[in-house]
Amino acid sequence: MWASDDCLVKTPSRTNMKRSKIDLEFIFRASPEILYKFLVLPECLVRWFCDSVDITGDQFVFEWDGDEENAELVDDIEAERLRFKWEDSEDGEHLEFRMYKSGVTNETILEITDYCDEGEEDLQSDLWASQISKLRKETGG
User: Fold this and answer.
1) Contacts of 56 (CB under 8 A, 6+ apart)
2) What is each CA distance from 70 to 53, 59, 105, in whole angstroms?
3) How do residues 51-87 score in pLDDT, each as one tens digit?
4) What is the Cα–Cα distance from 69 to 61, expressed in whole angstroms?
5) Mean pLDDT of 102-128
6) How far is CA 137 from each of CA 20, 70, 79, 102, 115, rounded to the nearest angstrom?
7) Which domains does the chain show, CATH number per domain?
8) What SS3 state is found at 95?
């Protein structure tokens, strides 16, 4: 496990020999309600997460550098939790965002669960840290 000023990376757990589950935690000054908007609204997602997004019901089509990735929103509890299932992901894999207020510091905690190829945990963590830096700027911290 390693930590920086604004991110705690929990030790990856192996789901099988080829994929790793990673859990990340980030601290925000923005409320869970504001973070939630930046995770579900197209006009907010393009400001930090992707180049474009098309949403039809629970189906999200994200685009990065001309490549599209399809995801289904499988769990949505407003200002608490979002879970996406990528079209080509392995069984049990998902991308999850959980947000809540810390009872001690009154800051908002954003927890992210994601999966990556075994051996790419640091790369995936660095990618999320970069994306979250953009999200912090957009949400005011």
Assistant:
1) none
2) 10, 7, 37
3) 999 999 999 999 999 999 999 999 999 999 999 999 9
4) 6
5) 96
6) 29, 26, 19, 20, 25
7) 2-48+76-139 (3.30.530.20)
8) strand
